[in-house]
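Protein 1 of 2
SEQ + STRUCT:
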Amino acid sequence: MLEKLYFYYTNDLHSNFDQWARVTGFLKEKKAMKEAANESTWTIDIGDHVDRVHPIAEAFMGKANVELMNDAGYDLATIGNNEGITLSRDDFFHLYDDAAFQVVCANLHSMDNQEPDWLHPSVKIESINGVRIGVIGLTAPFNAFYELLDWHVASPYQTLKKYVKQLKQSTDVIILLSHLGLSEDQEIARRFADIDVIIGGHTHHLLRTGEHINNTVITAAGKHCAFIGEVILTWDHDQGKLVTKEAYTTDVTHLAKDLETEQKLYELSEEADKILEEKIVHIHSPIEVKWFKDTVIMQELTNTVQDWTNADCAMLNAGLLLDQIPAGDVTYKDIHQICPHPINPVVIDLKGNELLEVIRASFTKDFMELKLKGFGFRGEILGRMQFSGIEVETYVHETGEEYVQHVWFDGEPLDAERTYKVATADTFTFGRLLPEIAKSENKHYFLPEFLRDILADTLRIKFGDK
């Protein structure tokens, strides 16, 4: 006898709810069809469902996301870095308290030995006809952030050695829910022949029909739930093994919306607006924001970041602020709209010659006009860098390009061999935007505060009623 096992999954929604009513409609319909046909089916999320860029996620600190997943009928989920490191420890500890699904993550551990009740390293599920399925979850090890919140993320490979061995002895099929990224998923498939399926995320890769490496099928469905993934496994009960492993993705952007979900999103949005309407400050004059010019607000924000982190100097890009700030009452909702990024301050150690290279790079047209996607940045372009604690003297070439001529610290030129503590946005510690920052061996992140929290303080102190 052949039995088909169906798994529908989402990954990396990032609180982009544009397609969510369609996602819910699709998942409900598929589950109802399979259950009516007496076939086994499960609905899964691979993490980064929560992203505080959206007012609903911000107002409810992710709990509304969990409520929406409950309504959609999810059975399993693992966590992404946006759940794990963009919430305070307490908010994350209680994020899934009311989840109607099981949360699986084997490499996340509390450093104070108090694990949340919802956290499971692995789970076992069973098909209608008795096929035993072991599910493991893994999340990306951003320990420079996690450990500031008293969590630790263990090595994915060491974790897998333990749990794959355990599940191999007690299950027929092993599935990994991986918020690690495509290259890690591929390496895991090469190393662990006993893993049958890797459902992935984190790097927003879209595998329309899956990728087969050795014994494993790897799949992922992009980002923002424009696509929903499907895995179909066929178990031969006579042979006692899997005979086919298939993976597909479906574009849902043209499908009908689930009206109950659409109404729920409207209600959550209205409630979120009320929560975020708390007045932060009253300002008498509008505050100008420009992406390619020095402005008072960016200068004051950069000054505040330097003071708040006790750094030697600070640098922030103007593209962090997305809009002007009108006169009148400024609410937290206003600040969230103006600075929606889940970006934390960071202090890094740079030698004087490295700092000079960073400053020079930040004045290039390519840097300022870069339309960055990812690394926490949710704006349009990076914009001009502004500085605190250092003086930057530039000249404009006849081509119109601006170049750095001199940089002064305490009235003296930068010392090439001196180490400076530089405060900036944690965005620049990832990738190769500013290599000297990314490669710095000493990085001190500040959590759970976002830059918008420091913007709120700046407005209160520097621009509010005296």
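Protein 2 of 2
SEQ + STRUCT:
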Amino acid sequence: MALDDSVLLRTEGRAGYITLNRPRALNALTHAMVRTIDAALAQWEQDESVAVVVISGAGERGLCAGGDIRAIHADALAGGNASFAFWRDEYRLNARIARYSKPYVALMDGIVMGGGVGVSAHGGVRIVTERSAVAMPETGIGFVPDVGGTHLLAQAPGELGTHLALTGTAVGAADAMLCGLADHFVPSSRLAELTASLAGLDDVAEAVALYAQAAPEGELARHREWIDECYAAGTVEEILDRLLDYGDPAAKEAAETIVTRSPTSLKVTLAALRRARRLGALEPVLDQEYRVSCAALSSPDLVEGVRAQVIDKDRRPRWSPAELSAVTDADVDRFFAPLGDDELRASSTSTR
């Protein structure tokens, strides 16, 4: 278990509760937190007195804003490899959550991004609220969707997942449900009641049904036509051309967002999504994402993207290469190169 209070664990009645407890950092995941969550899940899976696991975030702002990218940035600058160990354990935790044998209830209230999606959207019961903002925004920091994000987005209807992956757009409750990232809408004012009720009820579905409501209308459903047509293109360049030519202001806005992202990240992300569709299952996709993430650590765009968005906050990243046309197929293929003995092998059941 963790030596600090960054993850709070408790059991009550039939439920095990996990609370991510770094509210000032929007509950960003550290390596120690990942290992603590994994150890708790392993223990509770064998504990007959625990029938359901519930994960939530401390504070009012969200479940989790992702991994600790400041630490990853520092590791990349130093030419280190601590991030490799973090990702290895994080992705294996994602796999454990996806195959967990007991109901795993994720309260996706507020901001849920990157690694926050990884510890929630692979669960069996995923609850969003009117405050939810769910996203995989990695292309904006010179990275690529990970934590099983390419698996989730590749499974979304039509090309919705491609749109979310390339733009990094955050979606609310209804759109998260439409994309297959969440299951139920519960008003935030009722989460405490729902959470408490799970301690005493054996039927989780029945408990959730008592609190679930119809989600407020989303945005994506009315844009499906241009999203599906434009993002079906085979290259990022062609996607941009289609978006700009479509004639819909929302499509043009999407194109304007995409051109601000890392050209390398965009091309690798599109390739990762297409490959994830062919791979199908989560675990081989996590293995692929590990290769991509390890390659990204030595990419100049990850260091520059985090600098621009998080460290200096000037919002003016200088991508290298700066143009999509300068990113070759060989550049993209490098991110998918096998790692030999260092492969992830996400089917491993524990991070320890």
